[in-house]
Amino acid sequence: MEGLGIDLKLLIAQIINFGLFFYVFKRFLAKPFVHYIDEEKQKELEREKSFQKAKKLEEEALKKEQEALTKVRKEAQEIIKEAKQIAEKLKEEVLAQAQEEVREIKKKAQKQVELEKEAVYADAKEKITKLSFFIVQNALREVLSDDLKKKITERILKNSSKQLKLS
Amino acid sequence: MKINPRLKEDLKKYLLRKQEEEQNKVMIRSAYKLSEEELKSITEFFPELKGKEIVEVTDDSLLAGVVIQQGSKVRDLSLKSQLMSLEQRINEIA
Q1: Contacts of A154 in chain B (CB under 8 A)
Q2: B76: helix, coil or strand?
Q3: Residue A3 vs residues A6, A15, B72: alpha-carbon distances, Å
Protein backbone atom coordinates (compact mmCIF):
# COMPACT_ATOMS: atom_id res chain seq x y z
CA MET A 1 0.00 0.00 0.00
CA GLU A 2 2.81 2.31 0.78
CA GLY A 3 4.32 1.40 -2.53
CA LEU A 4 1.14 2.77 -4.24
CA GLY A 5 1.36 6.02 -2.26
CA ILE A 6 -1.71 5.37 -0.17
CA ASP A 7 -1.34 6.23 3.47
CA LEU A 8 -3.62 4.04 5.44
CA LYS A 9 -3.80 6.25 8.44
CA LEU A 10 -4.61 9.24 6.26
CA LEU A 11 -7.17 7.24 4.43
CA ILE A 12 -8.83 6.15 7.62
CA ALA A 13 -8.65 9.68 8.97
CA GLN A 14 -10.21 10.98 5.75
CA ILE A 15 -12.85 8.32 5.86
CA ILE A 16 -13.63 9.23 9.47
CA ASN A 17 -13.50 12.89 8.51
CA PHE A 18 -15.83 12.21 5.64
CA GLY A 19 -18.07 10.19 7.89
CA LEU A 20 -18.19 13.01 10.41
CA PHE A 21 -18.75 15.52 7.70
CA PHE A 22 -21.48 13.36 6.24
CA TYR A 23 -23.11 12.93 9.62
CA VAL A 24 -22.88 16.64 10.43
CA PHE A 25 -24.07 17.59 6.95
CA LYS A 26 -26.92 15.16 7.05
CA ARG A 27 -28.01 16.12 10.52
CA PHE A 28 -27.54 19.84 10.45
CA LEU A 29 -27.44 20.92 6.83
CA ALA A 30 -29.10 18.38 4.55
CA LYS A 31 -32.46 18.28 6.25
CA PRO A 32 -33.01 22.06 6.44
CA PHE A 33 -31.55 22.41 3.01
CA VAL A 34 -33.78 19.75 1.57
CA HIS A 35 -36.64 21.18 3.61
CA TYR A 36 -35.85 24.55 2.19
CA ILE A 37 -35.67 23.13 -1.32
CA ASP A 38 -38.95 21.35 -0.76
CA GLU A 39 -40.48 24.54 0.52
CA GLU A 40 -39.21 26.41 -2.44
CA LYS A 41 -40.52 23.73 -4.72
CA GLN A 42 -43.87 23.92 -2.98
CA LYS A 43 -43.92 27.67 -3.24
CA GLU A 44 -43.02 27.38 -6.85
CA LEU A 45 -45.87 24.96 -7.40
CA GLU A 46 -48.28 27.20 -5.62
CA ARG A 47 -47.07 30.19 -7.62
CA GLU A 48 -47.53 28.18 -10.74
CA LYS A 49 -50.99 27.19 -9.62
CA SER A 50 -51.94 30.82 -8.85
CA PHE A 51 -50.53 31.92 -12.13
CA GLN A 52 -52.55 29.34 -13.97
CA LYS A 53 -55.63 30.33 -12.02
CA ALA A 54 -55.07 33.98 -12.78
CA LYS A 55 -54.48 33.17 -16.41
CA LYS A 56 -57.67 31.19 -16.51
CA LEU A 57 -59.54 34.02 -14.86
CA GLU A 58 -58.03 36.45 -17.31
CA GLU A 59 -59.06 34.29 -20.22
CA GLU A 60 -62.53 33.97 -18.85
CA ALA A 61 -62.75 37.72 -18.32
CA LEU A 62 -61.50 38.31 -21.85
CA LYS A 63 -64.01 35.85 -23.17
CA LYS A 64 -66.80 37.55 -21.25
CA GLU A 65 -65.62 40.89 -22.50
CA GLN A 66 -65.63 39.64 -26.07
CA GLU A 67 -69.08 38.18 -25.61
CA ALA A 68 -70.37 41.42 -24.08
CA LEU A 69 -68.79 43.40 -26.92
CA THR A 70 -70.34 41.13 -29.51
CA LYS A 71 -73.69 41.43 -27.78
CA VAL A 72 -73.44 45.20 -27.62
CA ARG A 73 -72.37 45.36 -31.29
CA LYS A 74 -75.29 43.18 -32.23
CA GLU A 75 -77.70 45.31 -30.23
CA ALA A 76 -76.25 48.46 -31.75
CA GLN A 77 -76.69 47.04 -35.23
CA GLU A 78 -80.25 46.11 -34.39
CA ILE A 79 -80.91 49.62 -33.12
CA ILE A 80 -79.32 51.14 -36.20
CA LYS A 81 -81.37 48.89 -38.43
CA GLU A 82 -84.55 49.81 -36.60
CA ALA A 83 -83.70 53.48 -36.71
CA LYS A 84 -83.02 53.23 -40.44
CA GLN A 85 -86.38 51.57 -40.96
CA ILE A 86 -88.14 54.22 -38.90
CA ALA A 87 -86.29 56.97 -40.78
CA GLU A 88 -87.24 55.41 -44.10
CA LYS A 89 -90.84 55.19 -43.04
CA LEU A 90 -90.81 58.78 -41.80
CA LYS A 91 -89.23 59.89 -45.05
CA GLU A 92 -91.98 58.22 -47.03
CA GLU A 93 -94.66 59.73 -44.83
CA VAL A 94 -93.18 63.21 -45.08
CA LEU A 95 -92.84 62.84 -48.86
CA ALA A 96 -96.43 61.68 -49.19
CA GLN A 97 -97.60 64.54 -47.01
CA ALA A 98 -95.57 67.05 -48.99
CA GLN A 99 -96.98 65.69 -52.25
CA GLU A 100 -100.48 65.93 -50.85
CA GLU A 101 -99.86 69.49 -49.75
CA VAL A 102 -98.49 70.35 -53.18
CA ARG A 103 -101.61 68.89 -54.75
CA GLU A 104 -103.80 70.89 -52.40
CA ILE A 105 -101.89 74.09 -53.08
CA LYS A 106 -102.12 73.46 -56.81
CA LYS A 107 -105.83 72.85 -56.52
CA LYS A 108 -106.35 75.99 -54.43
CA ALA A 109 -104.25 78.03 -56.83
CA GLN A 110 -106.24 76.75 -59.79
CA LYS A 111 -109.46 77.56 -58.01
CA GLN A 112 -108.13 81.01 -57.14
CA VAL A 113 -107.13 81.57 -60.75
CA GLU A 114 -110.59 80.50 -61.89
CA LEU A 115 -112.25 82.81 -59.39
CA GLU A 116 -110.05 85.68 -60.41
CA LYS A 117 -110.72 84.95 -64.04
CA GLU A 118 -114.43 85.03 -63.37
CA ALA A 119 -114.10 88.25 -61.39
CA VAL A 120 -112.08 89.88 -64.16
CA TYR A 121 -114.57 88.69 -66.73
CA ALA A 122 -117.52 90.00 -64.69
CA ASP A 123 -115.74 93.30 -64.13
CA ALA A 124 -114.86 93.64 -67.81
CA LYS A 125 -118.39 92.76 -68.79
CA GLU A 126 -119.81 95.34 -66.41
CA LYS A 127 -117.44 98.02 -67.64
CA ILE A 128 -118.15 97.22 -71.27
CA THR A 129 -121.89 97.31 -70.61
CA LYS A 130 -121.61 100.61 -68.75
CA LEU A 131 -119.44 102.09 -71.48
CA SER A 132 -121.79 100.85 -74.20
CA PHE A 133 -124.77 102.40 -72.51
CA PHE A 134 -122.89 105.59 -71.87
CA ILE A 135 -122.03 105.79 -75.56
CA VAL A 136 -125.63 105.02 -76.50
CA GLN A 137 -126.94 107.71 -74.14
CA ASN A 138 -124.55 110.29 -75.48
CA ALA A 139 -125.32 109.29 -79.04
CA LEU A 140 -129.05 109.52 -78.40
CA ARG A 141 -128.60 112.93 -76.81
CA GLU A 142 -126.92 114.10 -80.00
CA VAL A 143 -129.19 112.30 -82.41
CA LEU A 144 -132.66 112.75 -80.88
CA SER A 145 -134.45 115.76 -82.24
CA ASP A 146 -137.36 117.39 -80.39
CA ASP A 147 -139.83 115.63 -82.68
CA LEU A 148 -138.32 112.25 -81.98
CA LYS A 149 -138.32 113.04 -78.27
CA LYS A 150 -142.00 113.91 -78.45
CA LYS A 151 -142.85 110.73 -80.30
CA ILE A 152 -140.88 108.63 -77.84
CA THR A 153 -142.50 110.39 -74.87
CA GLU A 154 -145.94 109.77 -76.35
CA ARG A 155 -145.15 106.10 -76.95
CA ILE A 156 -143.81 105.71 -73.36
CA LEU A 157 -146.89 107.35 -71.88
CA LYS A 158 -149.23 105.14 -73.94
CA ASN A 159 -147.38 102.00 -72.89
CA SER A 160 -147.31 102.93 -69.23
CA SER A 161 -151.00 103.80 -69.17
CA LYS A 162 -151.73 100.39 -70.82
CA GLN A 163 -149.69 98.68 -68.11
CA LEU A 164 -151.56 100.60 -65.41
CA LYS A 165 -154.90 99.56 -66.92
CA LEU A 166 -153.76 95.93 -67.04
CA SER A 167 -152.54 96.02 -63.42
CA MET B 1 -139.45 111.96 -23.01
CA LYS B 2 -142.66 113.83 -22.30
CA ILE B 3 -143.67 116.30 -25.00
CA ASN B 4 -146.12 119.10 -24.48
CA PRO B 5 -149.45 117.78 -25.95
CA ARG B 6 -150.22 121.21 -27.44
CA LEU B 7 -146.84 121.26 -29.18
CA LYS B 8 -147.41 117.73 -30.39
CA GLU B 9 -150.77 118.70 -31.85
CA ASP B 10 -149.35 121.77 -33.59
CA LEU B 11 -146.53 119.77 -35.05
CA LYS B 12 -148.92 117.13 -36.32
CA LYS B 13 -151.08 119.77 -37.97
CA TYR B 14 -148.05 121.41 -39.55
CA LEU B 15 -146.75 118.16 -40.97
CA LEU B 16 -150.18 117.19 -42.32
CA ARG B 17 -150.45 120.60 -43.95
CA LYS B 18 -147.01 120.20 -45.49
CA GLN B 19 -147.89 116.75 -46.74
CA GLU B 20 -151.07 118.04 -48.32
CA GLU B 21 -149.17 120.84 -50.00
CA GLU B 22 -146.68 118.33 -51.33
CA GLN B 23 -149.48 116.08 -52.53
CA ASN B 24 -151.07 118.96 -54.35
CA LYS B 25 -147.79 119.85 -56.05
CA VAL B 26 -146.65 117.72 -58.99
CA MET B 27 -143.21 118.07 -60.56
CA ILE B 28 -142.86 116.89 -64.14
CA ARG B 29 -139.32 116.61 -65.45
CA SER B 30 -138.89 116.20 -69.19
CA ALA B 31 -136.06 116.27 -71.71
CA TYR B 32 -137.64 119.16 -73.55
CA LYS B 33 -140.22 121.86 -72.89
CA LEU B 34 -143.66 120.22 -72.87
CA SER B 35 -146.51 121.87 -74.68
CA GLU B 36 -149.93 122.48 -73.12
CA GLU B 37 -151.38 119.61 -75.12
CA GLU B 38 -148.73 117.27 -73.91
CA LEU B 39 -149.32 118.29 -70.29
CA LYS B 40 -153.03 117.77 -70.83
CA SER B 41 -152.46 114.30 -72.31
CA ILE B 42 -150.29 113.44 -69.28
CA THR B 43 -153.09 114.40 -66.91
CA GLU B 44 -155.44 112.28 -69.03
CA PHE B 45 -153.10 109.30 -68.79
CA PHE B 46 -152.83 109.82 -65.01
CA PRO B 47 -156.16 111.19 -63.82
CA GLU B 48 -154.94 111.61 -60.21
CA LEU B 49 -152.85 114.53 -61.44
CA LYS B 50 -155.90 116.53 -62.40
CA GLY B 51 -156.41 119.65 -60.35
CA LYS B 52 -152.86 119.59 -58.96
CA GLU B 53 -150.29 122.34 -59.25
CA ILE B 54 -147.86 121.26 -61.97
CA VAL B 55 -144.23 122.38 -61.89
CA GLU B 56 -142.33 121.75 -65.08
CA VAL B 57 -138.56 121.17 -65.13
CA THR B 58 -136.40 120.52 -68.17
CA ASP B 59 -133.70 117.91 -67.73
CA ASP B 60 -131.66 117.04 -70.81
CA SER B 61 -130.21 113.90 -69.21
CA LEU B 62 -133.60 112.11 -69.43
CA LEU B 63 -133.17 111.83 -73.25
CA ALA B 64 -136.91 111.39 -73.73
CA GLY B 65 -140.03 110.66 -71.68
CA VAL B 66 -140.99 112.20 -68.36
CA VAL B 67 -140.48 111.81 -64.64
CA ILE B 68 -143.56 112.59 -62.59
CA GLN B 69 -142.99 113.30 -58.91
CA GLN B 70 -145.91 113.78 -56.52
CA GLY B 71 -144.75 114.11 -52.93
CA SER B 72 -142.65 111.03 -52.24
CA LYS B 73 -144.18 109.11 -55.13
CA VAL B 74 -142.10 109.11 -58.31
CA ARG B 75 -143.04 107.66 -61.68
CA ASP B 76 -139.94 107.40 -63.86
CA LEU B 77 -141.09 107.15 -67.48
CA SER B 78 -137.88 108.44 -68.99
CA LEU B 79 -135.86 106.79 -71.75
CA LYS B 80 -132.81 107.05 -69.51
CA SER B 81 -134.36 104.84 -66.80
CA GLN B 82 -135.42 102.30 -69.39
CA LEU B 83 -131.88 102.17 -70.76
CA MET B 84 -130.59 101.73 -67.21
CA SER B 85 -132.97 98.87 -66.44
CA LEU B 86 -131.96 97.24 -69.74
CA GLU B 87 -128.33 97.61 -68.72
CA GLN B 88 -129.08 95.97 -65.37
CA ARG B 89 -130.90 93.09 -67.01
CA ILE B 90 -128.02 92.47 -69.40
CA ASN B 91 -125.61 92.40 -66.46
CA GLU B 92 -127.79 89.88 -64.65
CA ILE B 93 -128.26 87.60 -67.64
CA ALA B 94 -124.81 87.52 -69.26
Answers
A1: 38, 41
A2: strand
A3: 8, 20, 190
Contact assessment for residue B45 and residue B72, using Cβ atoms and an 8 Å cutoff: no
Q: Tell me if residue A3 falls in helix, strand or coil.
A: coil
Question: E strands of A32-97, at which residues?
Answer: none
CB contact under 8 A, A141 and B63: yes
Residue of A nearest to B35 (CA): A150
Nearest by CB to residue A137, choosing from B41, B80, B90, is: B80
Q: What is the pLDDT of residue A1?
A: 61
B33: which DSSP letter?
P
* CB atoms B79 and A148 under 8 Å: no
Residue contact B66–A150, C-beta within 8 A:
no
One digit per residue, the tens of pLDDT, for chain A of length 167 reads: 667 777 888 899 999 999 999 999 888 888 888 889 999 999 999 999 999 999 999 999 999 999 999 999 999 999 999 999 999 999 999 999 999 999 999 999 999 999 999 999 989 988 999 999 999 989 998 888 888 888 888 888 888 877 766 65
Residue of A118, A157, A162, A164 best to disrupt the B interface, most CBs of B under 10 A: A157
